[in-house]
Amino acid sequence: xxxxxxxxxxxxxxxxxxxxxxxxxxxxxxxxxxxxxxxGEFVDSEEWFDSTNPAxxxxxxxxxxxxxxxxxxxxxxxxxxxxxxWGSMAASERAKYIFRIGRMIKEKAREFAVLETxxxxxxxxxxxxxxxxxxxxxxxxxxxxxxKLEYAFPGVDDPEPVGVCGQVIPWNFPLLMLAWKxxxxxxxxxxxxxxxxxxxxxxxxxxxxxxxxxxxxxGVVNFVNGAGDTxxxxxxxxxxxxxxxxxxTEVGKIIQKTxxxxxxxxxxxxxxxxxxxxxxxxxxDQAIEGIVDGIFFNQGHVCCAGSRLLVExxxxxxxxxxxxxxxxxxxxxxxxxxNTDVGAINSEQQLDKITxxxxxxxxxxxxxxQIDCDLPETGYYFRPTIFTGVTPSHRIAQEEIFGPVLSxxxxxxxxxxxxxxxxxxxxxxxxxxxxxxSKLFDVAGRLDCGVVWGNTYNQFDPAxxxxxxxxxxxxxxxxxxxLLDYMKHS
Amino acid sequence: MSPDYRPPQVPPVDQVGVxxxxxxxxxxxxxxxxxxxxxxxxVSMIDLTTLEGNDTPGKVxxxxxxxxxxxxxxxxxxxxxxxxxxxxxxxxxEALEGTDIHIASVASYFPSGQASLDERTDDIEDxxxxxxxxxxxxxxxxxxxxxxxxxxxxEIVAFKKAAGDAHLKVILETGELETFDNVRLxxxxxxxxxxxxxxxxxxxxxxxxxxxVVLVMLQTIRDHYLKTGERIGMKPAGGIRTAKGALKYLAMxxxxxxxxxLSPDLFRFGASSLLNDVLMQLEKQRTGxxxxxxxxxxx
Lengths: 490, 299
Hints:
The structure holds 2 protein chains of 2 kinds. Chain A folds into 2 domains: 33-270 and 469-488, Aldehyde Dehydrogenase, Chain A, domain 1; 275-454, Aldehyde Dehydrogenase, Chain A, domain 2, CATH 3.40.309. In chain A, 38% of the residues lie in helices and 17% in strands. Chain A contains 16 helices and 20 strands. Chain A has helices at residues 68-83, 85-88, 91-107, 109-120, 124-145, 149-152, 174-187, 202-214, 228-235, 249-259, 284-296, 316-327, 348-363, 395-398, 414-422, 437-446, and strands at residues 33-34, 36-38, 41-43, 47-53, 58-65, 160-161, 164-168, 191-195, 221-223, 242-246, 265-269, 275-278, 308-312, 367-370, 385-388, 405-411, 429-433, 451-454, 473-474, 487-488. The longest helix of chain A has 22 residues, at 124-145. Chain A starts with 32 loop residues before the first strand and ends with a strand. The model of chain A has no long low-confidence stretch (mean pLDDT 96). Chain B is α/β, with parallel strands linked by helices. Chain B has one domain (15-286): TIM Barrel (Alpha-Beta Barrel). Chain B has 12 helices and 8 strands. Chain B has an 8-stranded parallel sheet. Chain B starts with 14 loop residues before the first helix and ends in a 12-residue tail after the last helix. The model of chain B has no long low-confidence stretch (mean pLDDT 96). Classes of the chains: A alpha/beta, B alpha/beta.
C-alpha cells in the first residue's frame, strides 16, 4: 500500500498461519446441462451457453437460451396454473407449500451454499452463513403471510393476486434474489416465470429440482434461462401481469420503457452508490468493521454497498490508518476455503469493468491503497482497494463500480455529510455511525435513500422492507410492504 | 478527586458491533497443521491456576509437576506459569526450581480487593519476597463504579511499586464492570498506571472471560501500541475450558493485535481445566483418535 504518514504499523505476519480449510464439494450433484424448467418439467433447448466457476474458470454446466417460443410456453404454463390448481387453492394450503420449500432449503442448505459459491465466486462463509439462511427465512416469513393477506391490506376485504409475474434477477445473490421474488409472489397466489442471471443460473435449476420434490403444482414456478434477449422477451410478453427486476439502472430504464403504456405492474431494484457516514463521536473500531463489511462483503457486488465513505475531517487519518490495518487481515482467495473473506469476482466482464474504473480513479489523481496479498493464478480476482483524496466530482465517487473499491471523502458538518451523501443519482442505502442517537436519527431523516442503517451495515431480515429512491428503483421487497405489488388492491 | 487528574479519553464502544466481530473469529476454521501448532502455542501460554480455599502444598506440587511435563514423556511445551495464592508461592518455587516456568501469585486481597491499601500492598510485597515473579492484582471496582477513577489509577501505581521487578497483571473483573465502555476505560486506566498485562477476571465472578470483552481489551492494547510503541500483554481468565474455544481466542489475537502477541510474553490464558482438553486434542491429532480422559494426569 502507499504511504500515509503514520508512526507505527501493525505486524500481521505468518507466525501462525491458518492451514487451508476447503469446504468439500464432492457431495453436490448437478447435471451437465439444464435447458429450462416449464410446467414442472425440465425441457430441452436449441441454443446453449456455458456457466463457469469464476474461481477456476472451469465450465460447470451448460444452460439453455430461451427464445420467444420458449418464453411463451413458460408464460402459458404459468397462466394455466394460475387459472387452475394454484389459483383455486385455499390460502392455507398455499402456505404449506411455501413453508415446505423453506424447510427443504434448510435440509439442503450446505449443498445450495457450495453450488452458490462454485457458480458465483462468493466465499463459502457468506453463502453458508448469510445467503442460504436468508433464503429459507424469506420462505418461512411469506408462508406466514399467505392466509393473512387481509391484515396486510387493511380496508381491503378480499385482496386478489395480480396473475403471472415475470421476474428477472441478478448474479450477485442468485438464490436470495430468487427467494425475494418468488416467496411473496407465491404467498399472494401468483404464478411465476423467472429468468436467472446468465453467469449464475445453477442454484435456480437446483431450486427447480427442489420444487419437483416438494410437489408444487406444475407451472406455478417456471424458469427460462438466457441473457438479456431472453429477459427482454419475458418482460415484454403481453400475458405477463407484473414485472419485477433487480439489476442495473441501465437495464431498468429499458424495462420501464418496454412496459410503459401497458397495464403491466412494475417494480425495479437497481443500482446504488451508498455512503457510510462516520462522525467523530462514532465507536471507531465498530465503524471500521461496518466500512469493511459495507464494501468488501461479496467482493463489493452488492447494490446497497457502502461504496462511498464519508468521514468527518477530524478523524480522517485515524480512520484511514485503521481501515488499512484491518484490510491487511482480509483473506482473499479460494471461495470454497472456509477462511476466505473476499472471493472471486463474478465474471471476466465484471473484472474488466472494475479494473477500468479503478484506472479512471488513478488517472483522475486519487490516491490508491491496495492490500498486498497473493492472488490465485487462475480465476478472476481483484485486491480490496480504497481511494483517498476523492471528491464528489470524481467519477469513482459517482459511478457504481460493483467491486471491492471504496472511495473515501471527508465532511465537516452534518449538513455537509447529508449534502454529499445525497449527491448521487442513486438512493438505495446508507450507514450512519455516531454514538449520539439524536444526531443519528436527525441525519437519517435527511437522507434520500430507501434503507438507512445506524451503527451497522448490510443487515437483512425478511420482515424488513428493502428498496430504493431515485434511480435505485421503486417498490419494496420484504416484509408486509413486499406484498403490495403482488396484489390487486383498490 | 484532585483537580489535576483527568481520566483518559477513550472512544465509545458499540456492543452490537463488538459481539458481531467477536463471532466472526469464532467462525474461523482451524485445521491440520495450524491446529497442532496453535494447540502447542496455547499450552505454552497457559497460566496453570489453582486458587481455592482448600489448596495444599500437595495440590500445588501436583500442579507444578504437570506444568513441567504436561504430556509426561512425550514432547510438549511446558506451560508459561503456575498461578497460586501467596501462601503457596514457596511450594511452587521449590517445585519449579531449574525451569523457565514463571511463578505468578494473586495478591492485593484477591479476589475482592476489599482491604486497606497498606494491607493490599503488603500482600503484594509478601508474594514477591516469597519468590513470585508475576503478580496478578485486582482493581478497586467499587472506586471505579463510583467514578473515582483517580483512586483506581493511584492504587495500581502503588501496586506496581510494591511489585517491583515482578510483572504486574491487572485484573479488571469485567463481569462486575458490565459495559464495554467501562471495560475500555478501565483497560486504559490500568495501562496508563503501569500494568504489564491486563487481565479479564478473577474466575470467581460470572461472566468471566468472553470473546467480546477480550476483543475490547485487545483493541485498547493495540491503540496504546500505535500511540506509544509500548506493547501491553493480555490475559483472559476464567471460562475458557476447551481447546476449540482457546483456538478462537488465538485467531482473534492474530487478526487484532498481530504476530508479536502470539507469544507467552504478551498473551496468557488463565485456566486450569483447559490444559487437559488441549492435550487431549493434541493426542487426537497425533494418533487420529480420541483416548479416554483417564490417560491424562489430573492437574
